[in-house]
Amino acid sequence: MFTYNNKIKELIRNNIKDVKDANHYMLYWLLLIVCILLSIPVLASLLSVGYNTILPFYLSLIFIYLIMFIMHGLNKFRNHPEIGLYIGFTFIFLFTIYSSVIISPEYRATVLLGTFCIVPICIIDRYDRIIAFNTFFFILHTVLSFYYKGYRIGIDDTVNCLCYLILSIFLGLVVTLTKLRAYDTKRKFEIEKETDFLTGLKNRRKMFSLLDGLKNDALHRPTGIMMIDIDNFKQYNDQYGHAAGDNMLTMFGTLFKTLEEEYPVQFFRYGGEEFSAFIWDSHEEKLIELAEVIRSRVEQISCREGNTTVSIGLVDCLKYNKVDYDKILSAADLAAYSAKNNGRNSVVFYNPK
To answer: For a disulfide at 347, which of 35, 225, 263, 291, Cβ 3.0-4.6 Å?
Structure first.
């Protein structure tokens, strides 16, 4: 069980967004459904006096869940929806325990048994917490059952609840692992779809997806864009073979990922021997300085013909009044083409007219 708990924690950490979305979705429907279910006995009280004695209890619960339903969109529940689920299920447990030991002490626990099974299925969280949560209410009900119901019914309740507690632990474990593995498979598929397998960098598809999102997000737009073209790559590929060319591209990927850790820049495999780069929080002087750093660091990559070089086209996005990334990319590409025509191994800064 300890091994499974560590695996669940790892899967939650790797897929935290999907886990939060799933818990938030479950919280929404839990609050809504419980409010509807509690309304049934309230309506039944209009036809039968049997419910009148516990009507205030039902109305109080409906009020609590309605408040939680209104609040579920707040940041606290949005960022930690599992807290809302634990609170919601706490009131469900208290209600079912109250029904079992106070309202109908002459009967064995019934609805409570189902609650034990529902909780691990509905909450995605560290499994030790879920087990501790269920176990606490099992112990609470057991103590109260012996106290209010007597020894004979108390024994029956303890055995029945223990069986369902054990069932809930294993049933919930299977369901939780199944959900998390599905999220993890989806995440890995998305990474593969957006990542160039040769360089490990994000691919062209991811770049354009990012640009689409940035059109309406002025705070996170890049201040500069580069197009980087490996010099004489076709001749190198033809002379030494595709394996050597692939090896060179892999070395570029390694270098660019290192630069991403050192500077506010993200690289993309644009296609063939071309790469693009987005730079953040950098004015014109810093953009040129970073481009020169990239150019000089590339020269340190050793290949069969000695050091390799790149031609870089650089654009300052802040010089464009209207954000048009197609136009900016074309300008950067044109600047890189000019760098090649000017003797390669150089940086050309594009100035829009």
So the answer is: 291
Residues in the chain: 353
pLDDT value for 254: 94
* Residues 208, 185 share a domain: no
Q: Is the pTM of this model over 0.85?
A: no
Residue 77 to residue 283: CA distance in whole angstroms? 39
Range of the domain at 240: 202-350
Distance of CA 265 to the CA centre of its chain: 23
Q: Between 207 and 75, whose confidence is greater?
A: 207
How many helices (H) and strands (E) in the chain?
13, 8
Q: Which residues contact 62 (CB under 8 A, 6 or more apart)?
A: 35, 38, 39, 42
Dist CA 291 CA 228 (whole Å): 9
- Give the pLDDT confidence of 54-98 residue by residue, as tens digits: 677 778 888 888 888 887 766 666 788 999 899 999 999 998 998
**What is the tally of structural domains in the chain?**
2
End position of a domain, from candidates 193, 210, 233: 193
Mind giving me the DSSP string for 48-92?
Answer: -GGGGGGHHHHHHHHHHHHHHHHHTTSHHHHH-HHHHHHHHHHHH
Q: Which amino acid is at 194?
A: E
What is the domain-level CATH number for residue 311?
3.30.70.270
Q: Are residues 7 and 155 in the same domain?
A: yes
Q: Report how far residue 108's alpha carbon sits from residue 129's, in angstroms, rounded to the nearest whole number.
A: 27
Residue where a domain stops, chosen among 130, 160, 193 = 193
